Amino acid sequence: MECLLGLIKVRVVRGVKLAICDPLTHSSDPYVVLRLGQQKVKSSIKYKTINPEWNEDLTLSITNWTIPVKIEVFDHDTFTKDDSMGDAEFSILDFVEVAKKDLTNVSDGTVMKTIHPENENCFAAESQIVWKEGKVSQDIVLRLRNTETGELILHLEWVSIPGLGH
């Protein structure tokens, strides 16, 4: 049995300029799937939009912080297999590392670490891991791969579990 380190609440905020999969309506019916190891969670479907607003919280249990979170965006189809609208992934290593620190004497609003976009990650913009209101959080803009267009905006928040330390 792997040891539970904590939980990450991933708020799928919105998608920006996602691919058009339904040419007749010039839109798509997107939803998001998050995977971490054996876990798989998904958002609701937003119909007829390429700029969906989800604002949905999906929670992942963290047992191995070296595995990246994989994200896929799909276009929901009623009668055929759902179309892929792109994918991305991001490492939670830095995020969990900050969350596991003793942050009792850290002042509110402190930037704990800044992650820059580079070839190895899907970040579309600089992202900061912040200690705010007693929580470790991070806002992320991810550029989707294997598609011509699209970004996903996410908000991560560490959920500590009593008895597990921080």
Automatic annotation (TrEMBL):
SMART domains xref list: C2
GO molecular function list: GTPase activator activity; lipid binding; metal ion binding
SUPFAM superfamilies reported in the protein's UniProt record: C2 domain (Calcium/lipid-binding domain, CaLB)
Checking InterPro entries in the record gives: C2_dom, C2_domain_sf, CAR1-11
Q: Which UniProt keywords apply?
A: Abscisic acid signaling pathway, Calcium, Cell membrane, GTPase activation, Lipid-binding, Membrane, Metal-binding, Nucleus
Cited Pfam families:
C2
Query: What do the Gene Ontology cellular component annotations say?
Result: nucleus; plasma membrane
Q: Does the keyword Metal-binding apply?
A: yes
Task: Output the PROSITE patterns linked to this UniProt entry.
Answer: C2
Q: Any idea where the C2 domain is?
A: 1-105
Q: List, in alphabetical order, the GO biological process terms annotated in this UniProt record.
A: abscisic acid-activated signaling pathway
- Entries under CDD domains matching the protein: C2_ArfGAP (cd04038)
Q: Which family does it belong to?
A: Belongs to the plant CAR protein family.
Q: Which PANTHER family match?
A: OS07G0501700 PROTEIN, PROTEIN C2-DOMAIN ABA-RELATED 4
Protein name listed in UniProt: C2 domain-containing protein
Primary gene name: LOC100834582
